[in-house]
Specification:
Order of helices and strands: EHEHEHEHHEHEEHEHHHHHH
Structural class: alpha/beta
Largest sheet: 8 strands, mixed
Strand order of the largest sheet: 3-2-1-4-5-6-7-8
Number of domains: 2
Oligomer: single chain
Strand content: 5-15%
Length: about 280
Amino acid sequence: MSEQSAGITFIGGGNMARSIVGGLIASGRPAGSILVSEPDAGARERLLELGPIGVTDDNAAAVAEAELVVMAVKPQVMHQVLEPLAPALAARRPVLMSIAAGITVPMLARWGGDLPLVRCMPNTPSLVGAGMAGLYANEAVDAAGRELATGVMEAVGDVVWVEDEALIDAVIAVSGSGHAYLFRVMEAMIEGGTELGLPESTARALVLQTALGAARMALESGTPPADLRRQVTSPGGTTEAALATFEEGDLGGCVVRVMRSAASRADALARELDDRA
């Protein structure tokens, strides 16, 4: 283990932790202020490819000097990993942030102790630095703690805070699962392009760049998507005809139902994880 104390400790060194560590280093965070505890020796070696961070397989030692501890383990093992850390966490009282789906703040408090707690729901575009994360903090997290948690997740994308933990299920429905909805739309558009005679590679290139361009227009212009849609829809044109077919199929209602299903399942998964612990 590195002799340097770590301001930010990750418990678990999988893909999401690796992407966040890489983002932190790229954004200027000193590598020596980052420590990752990971039981797999091969994973520790791969983490060192990101820079001269600290690595260890000793979870308790890893949290001893941390200002922020990021729990980056699978939800199914959170209880067994976190509970043994409670004494070390109580001594240091860092901000404890979980990025595991379905792990609620009450669960973290029960297993990790009375700490400043943050529940974070990132999404997988974080792996390419284009993530979106929703965060919730309990009352023990002060402004400095929020700033630290925000800075960690902004290393791989953007961040929003919600003031009611129940809204994390809505975050999951919108951004946690939302990229999959967009992938499905892209998939269907590629299929449609090939049915209209385009080579699959050409259809894919057209669809992916169109999706990227639409997202950039919405982000950079600050114009609501509904207004952008109206701006590109000429009366009697091809886009109007296409959108009319969407309306006939109740696209808006379908998307809302999809998101309700995701939110409902998120709530059920949290209950299942709590019951198993």
